[in-house]
Amino acid sequence: MNDSSVGAVRPSATRTTDFDAIVIGAGISGMFMLYRLRELGLTTRVFEAGSDVGGTWYWNRYPGARFDSESWTYGYSFSNELLQEWDWKEQFSPQPDTLAYLNHLADKFDLRRDMQFCSRVKCAAWDEAKTAWTVTLEDGNRANSTFLFTAMGVLSTPTLPKIAGRESFAGQAYHPGLWPHTPVDFTGKRVGIIGTGATAIQAIPEIAKTAKQLTVFQRRPNWAAPLHNAKISKSEMEELESRYDEIYAHCRTTVTSFIHNADPRATFDVSPQEREAFWEKLYAEPGFGIWVGNFRDSYIYEKANAELSAFVARKIRGRVKDPKVAELLIPKDHGFGTRRVPLESSYFEAYNRDNVLLVDVIKDQPIECITPKGVKTAKQEYEFDILIYATGFDGVTGAFDRIDFRGADGVRLKDVWLDGQPRTFLGMLAERFPNLLMVLGPHTARGNVPHAIEHCVEWQTGLVGFMLEHGYNRVEPKPEHVAEWTKTVLKISEPLFGSESRFVANGS
Ligand SMILES: Cc1cc2nc3c(=O)[nH]c(=O)nc-3n(C[C@H](O)[C@H](O)[C@H](O)COP(=O)(O)OP(=O)(O)OC[C@H]3O[C@@H](n4cnc5c(N)ncnc54)[C@H](O)[C@@H]3O)c2cc1C
Q1: 198 CA closest ligand 1 atom index
Q2: How far is the CA of 436 from the centre of ligand 1 (A)?
Q3: For an engineered disulfide with 158, which of 101, 177, 288, 414 has Cβ 3.0 to 4.6 Å away?
Q4: Residue 55 C-alpha to ligand 1 middle, in angstroms?
Q5: 53 Cα nearest atom in ligand 1
Q6: Ranges of H-type helices in 254-404
Q7: Ligand 1 center to 398 CA (angstroms)
Q8: Structure pTM?
Q9: 3-state DSSP helix/strand/coil % of the chain, to nearest 5
Q10: Residue nearest to atom 49 of ligand 1 (CA)
């Protein structure tokens, strides 16, 4: 389960180089940050752990990996030329096409000449006397810079299950976020997949098509709704290209930067028949409409959420032939939409196939261990040729935790962000960490992510531009502003997380 990119040439002796700015990560955030920093005239180096650009779309090559965002709303909006010359092939782009798009961008703007691949950052320390960061790579090489930008992604640190015996498995084992660069052949293979989150929901229907047997180990189900993907014809693409200004302007007005926006009506403003018809319409439409285009009170009023959850539960029951399996796939511990809703393509129908088995590892058969042959539960041992750990990511702060950040007076970020609780100003700056700017850091909004990235990059390069213009070389947020922002973010999220268990589908 290594990045198959290994094989980069590394210098034999360690050395230190100086730059105006260092960016960690060459995904969508890091690429755009580099573009803008160059415009400011800063010498910049991007350090990237992978062997090329793309971030999420470089790492996640698993079968079925694709956007939940409409492709034509996901691309960068900063270059009209880029918008006009790139043709998306599908409404929800598959991973290879998205990676091709990002490679095209890197070529077009010649970004790679300021990037260093196979270079994982391990430490970053602030030197007050030099007003500079020193960044140390895994191989011991160092670089100094006045500004340090983190563009490390919110879902870039894969987590593996903590199950005894994992290392002993003798077959092939994969994590979706560390997928090999050569396709994995499932034909005639016995495959086990642990986890039923967003990546598993995309991968399961694809793997089921060719595997001899696919066994899915589920801890807790996720709500999911149909993606309804389709090809984009040449004329449709031309029409989209002619409307980009309007599309992006519209996305800027929606809460999540998707094309969808909440319906102004409340759930119980309309008759049960109208409600049902509205939900049927949303369920039949492509994309996140069923989630973020729903009645405005869907996620803040328990009764409304219970009705919506019951509707989606009925849909699942209608799609899964075995009623027991259907019940297992319907979440009972949180309401529809109170967490990110993965979009799926025939996910529920996959369980109607003879070669797919769902195993409930909470109530029915807890996993005891992984063995050389497969997975041993409380009831039996399942033998596999291939095991997939679809166990997700150490989200948001995971990439920060993997780097030893030292701020003013050597203070550790881990000690300032006690118990994994980040403290930020605008999600972009951290107290006692001067000149550290976080793109898509903790406490920033996400939604349709590239929009949030462009906002962060524009704000941060605007700040740096201001500093250069006015002769400042150091920026750090005031503690009271960090406290206020952190408190605000926690307060906003309280009703959702604090009452999560109350949003339960009644299943009726
Ligand atoms: C499977 C999947 C599907 C997704 N689908 C959507 C979608 O449909 N719509 C949407 O809006 N968002 C989606 N996302 C979120 C997606 O992550 C963002 O859209 C976007 O790609 C984030 O870009 P980024 O550059 O901020 O981070 P990333 O793309 O994660 O890039 C971060 C880069 O930083 C590098 N890095 C991290 N730590 C270090 C280090 N210590 N040293 C060196 N390099 C480091 C990583 O290797 C990585 O390449 C999806 C995410 C996943 C995992």
Answers
A1: 1
A2: 19
A3: 177
A4: 5
A5: 49
A6: 272-284, 289-292, 302-319, 323-329, 347-350, 398-401
A7: 12
A8: 0.93
A9: 35, 20, 45
A10: 55
The alpha carbon of 217 and the centre of ligand 1 are apart by a number of angstroms equal to 26
Ligand 1 center to residue 62 CA distance, Å?
A: 15
Query: What is the pLDDT tens value at each position of the chain, 508 positions in all?
Result: 433 333 333 344 566 679 999 999 999 999 999 999 999 999 999 999 999 999 999 999 999 999 999 999 999 999 999 999 999 999 999 999 999 999 999 999 999 999 999 999 999 999 999 999 999 999 999 999 999 999 999 999 999 999 999 999 999 999 999 999 999 999 999 999 999 999 999 999 999 999 999 999 999 999 999 999 999 999 999 999 999 999 999 999 998 999 999 999 999 999 999 999 999 999 999 999 999 999 999 999 999 999 999 999 999 999 999 999 999 999 999 999 999 999 999 999 999 999 999 999 999 999 999 999 999 999 999 999 999 999 999 999 999 999 999 999 999 999 999 887 899 999 999 999 999 999 999 998 889 999 999 999 999 999 999 999 999 999 999 999 999 999 999 998 877 665 443 333 322 2
Centre of ligand 1 from the C-alpha of residue 60, in Å:
9
Indicate which atom in ligand 1 lies nearest the CA of residue 60. 1
User: From ligand 1's centre to the CA of 482, what distance in Å?
Assistant: 25
3-state secondary structure 218-252: ECCCCCCEECCCCECCHHHHHHHHHCHHHHHHHHH
3-class DSSP state of 142: strand
List pocket residues of ligand 1, CB cut-off 6 Å. Answer: 24-30, 47-50, 55-56, 58, 60, 65, 67-69, 74, 120-121, 151-153, 155-156, 199, 399, 402-403, 440, 448-449, 453
